[in-house]
Amino acid sequence: LQDAAIEHGVDTLLWDALSGTIGAAARLRDVLEPRARAAAARELFVLPDLQGATAALGAAGVPVLITKGTALAYTAYPHAWLRPRTDTDLLVSRADVPPATRALENCGYRRSAAVSTGELVSHQIAFERTDPHGVHHVIDLHWKIVNPQIVADALTFADLWSGARGVPALGAAVRVPSPVASIALGCVHRLAHHQGDDRLIWLYDLKLLASSLGAEDWTRFEDLACRQLIAGFCLDGLRTSRVHFATVIPATVEDALAGAMRDEPSKAYAEGPVSKRDVLLSDLALLGSWRERVRLVKEHAFPSPAFMQQRYGTSRRWALPALYVHRLVTGASKWVRQ
To answer: Is the CB of residue 273 less than 8 Å from the CB of residue 196?
Structure first.
């Protein structure tokens, strides 16, 4: 149970839930307590670092949204450290990526080679820094919510910004998506990036968000999911959350989402899993020109040298040709097997 709680990101939640218990439950809580203390201690360093980064973005005139785990940690959970996360996801408009990059670099962040970045293959840049206390911080700067073209623009920065709200604890410049948009974002991200790899913490996020909605909110959610052609994503996420956490979904909303998903081009994700090959073929079909299609294939096959060196654990640039050949051969064999 301890191992499962850690794997699913709910170890601090379980520690909190076991307060006041006796016997085996109390002993399990004792075992989990060091992790809870470590999470609470880490938050003392994460919060000021995040405040500094968002203040710098605000000073640079960059509107920015904090999304996913960090946004929910400070809005949906009683204590931010109860919601584990290894990075902070920021969403900006594509035009604001250059000034946002400069602002983060001025805060001591440096681009990481851990994520393959391109105009079409991956719509994000990873930044990292280690503070004077030795605490490692990671920020993922996104300009689209996910990579697959079929839903990459389902929730644009403008869509999410229109209903965004402030978070006083994080500073005056900070905005997070509304609970309605956060459910949609969580459901899309869950299937588009993590097919078949459900973690309980993601489903518990949906439980907390859904329980905060009123009747008008559910109407707005239904309209958003159907209008943006992500009803299948949203229905699958909420139903799976209901299986594990008894998440309540209004019957009328569930029926509307089920009816809408039948005509959605992205319904394959809800029926999934979708292979990497199928995602690539879908991306190629949706791109508007052959120039873009060639660029996408090139970005998949030949990511940056820095990414290749980090992925293969070498600093030897002379080895790059062999590494690219290895990537092409092993990647092709995996896609053929799929």
So the answer is: yes
